[in-house]
Every structure is written in structure tokens, then in C-alpha cells.
Amino acid sequence: MAKKTIDQTEVQDKTVLMRVDFNVPLNEQNEITDDRRIRMALPSIRSVIDRGGVVILMSHLGRPTGGAGDEKFSLAPAATRLGELLDSPVHFAKDTVGEDAQAKAAGLKAGEVLVLENLRFNAGEKKGDAEFAGKLAALADVYCNDAFGTCHREDASMVAVPQAMDGKPRVVGHLVAKEIQYLSDAISNPKRPFVAILGGAKVSDKINVINNLLGICDAILIGGAMAYTFSLAQGGQVGGSLVEKDKVDLAKELLAKSNGKLHLPVDTHCGDDFGNIAGCNKKVVAAGEIPEGMEGLDIGPETAKQYAEIIKGAKTVVWNGPMGVFEKPPMDAGTRAVAEAVADSDAVSIIGGGDSAAAVEQLGFADRVSHVSTGGGASLAMLEGKAFAAVDLLDEA
User: Fold this and answer.
1) Binding-site residues, please?
2) Which family does the record claim for this protein (predicted)?
């Protein structure tokens, strides 16, 4: 699945249209509160401008419903921050394919950068509109996809634009190349034992992932609220825990076909007031014995110990979803124990974005794992074994 990268592409005196993920959080003053996504795009951007090319950056931000002019969804703050990080001026177009974008794109000189306004201000982006895509495609000589977080989508900037640029170089940036390397290789050719850790709230979110990984993994460790749906499927008592009663039969099917690969918690840390976890009544009970009036909020210490032992022997680990309410101590203990075991292991360790990425960052283990994915939904889709049109149509290495 290796794709040609921006580093392998001639860019001098050429214009590169690069899809990035500048979907950064903004406060009420329209100030960026976390610029990590902008910083992570810098290597691909610098690869072009340092070699005498020009870069036109396109991205979405949020889910605007008011159309163009909805300032709280403008990419202007991202363009300003990018200029600060590059320590050079960055141009900003007030539209995506209109007069301002076309005039500023035409005026770019070698080594300069232009950020287009939010793609989602145009209805054509979400519709995958060919006419809108054609106008974007006409701006450049090279297409570069460096937005892994949207690779599972078929928005115009992800699919229709590179289709419209058929015959021109269509490549991946540093971020997407790294994601493909880790996630694709982990699934197609894992070092064994291969252990998957799956948490989060819903079995329904992870059904296809579990189904796919049962045929690939040596062990799947289940945590988070979805463990209580499995517990219910085994006839356990779950108290007031978050469960999907309509998915109990499905959980039974997964257990039946797992051949012992699915590992469920043997104990649960529960409490009687989710809104006041620090001050509520808490206790550890055996799995399937959560009393009425209490709900499971984390895996228990014995489960954490067992899971850590399995992780210790792994050679490949993929983790998607926390073990409990990791944002609220002491219910972060299970997630912390698993994160520490992954960090201490010799395995190739891949953390699927979203809450898992937030957890390893918050707990201080991000620099001790092999790879933290930049896309929660995209990494899940890849673990399901889905094909990505946005990646498949790019040039092979």
C-alpha cells in the first residue's frame, strides 16, 4: 500500500495543492487553544517551500451551517498561526475557489504559502462536487494528501480533486505516509503476538473492528463501557452501567466465534454518582456483580494486572478506546495501567486517535509509544479493513 510521498516529488517552480487537517479548536475569541494539528503539518509544508515550490493549503474546520462569512469557522486564525510557526508571511484567501483565491494563487512566488478559506463554506465539498473540485484542481501542478483524519471520507478535496488532477503527481504527505506505514503494516504483516486493546462506550462503534481483528489478532482486550454489554450477554449484573441492550445478541455472537481471543474484565471499579466521581461511594466488584444504584466506571485492578501481563508479551499492540472514565480520577487507573504497560513493552505500539490519543497524552506516555494516530475515525476504519478511495487513487511508490 506504499504511496509516493511529497519528498519523492519534484516541486521546484511548481504549485502543490495540499489537503491538511487544520480543524483546530477555537475559543469564543477565535483564538486557537491547541495548535498541534498545524505543527504536525509543518514537515510536509517545509518539504515543498524549502525546495523552491509554492503551497496552497486547503482544510475544513468544524461543521459550519451559516455558509461563507461565519467567522467562528474561518481558517484565518490557522493561517496566522502557521505564519508564526514558519516565521514567514502566510497569505490567506477569503474564499476557496473565488476571485480572491484565484488572484492570490496566481501571485505566489517560490517558497510562499497560501491558506484557502474553510472548504466546508462550499456545499460542493461535502457533496464531492466535480465542478467545485475542478476549480481547486486548476490551481496547482501537484496534489498532496496530508490529512489522515479525513481519509475515510469522500469529500471533494479528498477524492474528486485528485481525480480531477489525473495525470499530475498525486502523493501523500509525511503524516499520511506514517499512518499507512504503521496501521496498514500492523494489519497486513504484524509481528506476533498481536494484541488489540479496544475500549470506549459502544460495542456498535467497534463491531466491524472486532470482527476484522478476530481473524488477525492473537488477543483482544476489552474495556470501557462496552465491556458491560458483553457482561450482560454472559448473564451478569451491570447495575446502572452504560449498556446497549439491543446489542446483547451481537455480543453473544462475537464471544461464540472468538475462540478465546476476546478477554473481558474480571473485576470492575464502580461508583454511585457519575457527576461526582471524586466524592461518590466507590468499590471494586467482580465482573457481572455490579449492584443496583452503581455503575461500572473503570476496569478493576485485577483486570489491569492481567491485561498488563498480556501486553508485556506482545510484539504488536493496537489500542483504540480508554478502559474507563480516564478524565476523572480515580477512574483513570485502568487506562493508566494499560498505557504504562504499552509504554514499557517492546512491541510496535499504535494508538488510534480520539480518546486513546488524548489519554496517552494526558497520562504522559505519548513519547514512549511507536505511533499516535492523527485520526480516530480513520484509524478505526483502517482497523476494520476498509479501503480508502482517498488513498487508493494516489500514485504508488
Assistant:
1) 21-23, 37, 60-63, 120, 153, 206, 296, 327, 353-356
2) Belongs to the phosphoglycerate kinase family.
